[in-house]
């Protein structure tokens, strides 16, 4: 099959859970000898033309928080009009706002839409952007030939809200390759001497709660946070002010490859303090390393961990502080939880099964067309 993907920033992923999920899906599909095309934003990942068998079509876009995704999506759809694809697969509710145009230009081509999360809950967006994202959700869920949803919670919401049958198809995760603490020694980090969080530095990720709770912790373990802002300079400044002169809280910026692998593999505990998530790829990565997890008690986090992790009341700094202290005082129990979480990723979030299910959707739509 010849399949085009529209809506992602590009591959290989530089940051962001959606980008990592899309990259893995594309690479797995290409490995099965399908003809895969990914539309990418100019300047992303060094403007590669091909990556692990995936052909990359690079197009320009209008810079700015409110215009990047939509301008690039528009150009991608217009460019696609001059090519023939068996399937067009949209990612996320922002790009899905233009799905109607793709259907107009490709009336005989099945169009799939993956609903990753309700982005309008993200606090970096203003009123108009949140309104527009809701419109995109509506268009994507109503006009796509098949809507795929990454969490059971969101699947139930979509089925009730739009009165049709979305398909639950979660993100996948590869088996982790455990790395010894080598490169991360530059931050004076070693096995089990730090608590780890990895996410974009945006307010709804709840990192300010984590920093405040950590300050109450009676432990010599450090707190390491990996990630960069996303048009959120004010929030990044706020986080740095929260750190004060505490040398045990370390912001390491956006990390990938071997350094990110080392950070996961050698942490004592992973914390996911988000106020809202679709399905957190950072959390799934931590689980794949057998890393014990402490998560906010939002439905998507509890769904992913399935009772196998510690949890705290969402937005409650005091409860988060108590659970951090408990985790530091019960290392053997945490190790057992980590192994159970790792086992769960192999069963529930296996890429081979997810790719099989994705291809089954494509083939079903093609047979109907």
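^ structure tokens above, recovered residues below v
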């Amino acid at each position: 099959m010849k399949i085009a993907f529209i809506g992602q920033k590009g591959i290989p992923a530089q940051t962001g859970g959606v980008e990592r999920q899309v990259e893995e899906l594309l690479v797995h599909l290409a490995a099965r000898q399908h003809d895969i095309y990914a539309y990418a934003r100019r300047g992303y990942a060094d403007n590669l033309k091909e990556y692990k068998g995936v052909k990359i079509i690079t197009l320009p876009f209008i810079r700015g928080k409110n215009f990047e995704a939509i301008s690039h999506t528009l150009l991608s759809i217009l460019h696609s009009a001059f090519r023939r694809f068996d399937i067009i697969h949209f990612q996320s509710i922002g790009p899905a706002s233009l799905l109607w145009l793709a259907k107009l230009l490709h009336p005989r081509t099945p169009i799939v839409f993956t609903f990753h999360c309700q982005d309008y809950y993200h606090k970096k967006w203003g009123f108009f952007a949140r309104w527009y994202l809701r419109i995109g959700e509506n268009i994507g869920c109503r006009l796509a030939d098949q809507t795929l949803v990454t969490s059971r919670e969101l699947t139930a919401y979509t089925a009730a809200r739009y009165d049709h049958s979305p398909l639950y198809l979660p993100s996948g995760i590869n088996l982790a390759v455990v790395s010894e603490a080598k490169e991360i020694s530059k931050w004076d980090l070693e096995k089990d001497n730090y608590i780890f969080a990895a996410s974009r530095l945006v307010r709804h990720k709840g990192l300010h709660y984590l920093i405040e709770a950590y300050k109450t912790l009676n432990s010599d373990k450090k707190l390491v946070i990996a990630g960069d802002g996303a048009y959120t300079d004010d929030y990044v400044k706020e986080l740095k002010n929260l750190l004060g002169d505490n040398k045990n809280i370390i912001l390491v910026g956006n990390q990938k490859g071997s350094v990110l692998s080392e950070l996961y593999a050698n942490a004592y505990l992973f914390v996911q303090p988000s106020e809202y998530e679709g399905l957190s790829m950072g959390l799934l990565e931590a689980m794949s390393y057998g890393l014990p997890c402490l998560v906010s008690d939002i439905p998507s986090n509890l769904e992913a961990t399935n009772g196998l992790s510690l949890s705290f009341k969402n937005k409650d700094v005091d409860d988060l502080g108590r659970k951090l202290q408990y985790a530091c005082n019960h290392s053997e129990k945490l190790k057992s939880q980590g192994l159970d979480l790792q086992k769960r990723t192999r069963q529930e979030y296996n890429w081979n099964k997810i790719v099989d299910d994705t291809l089954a959707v494509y083939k079903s739509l093609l047979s109907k067309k």
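The CA atoms of residues 199 and 227 lie 5 Å apart.
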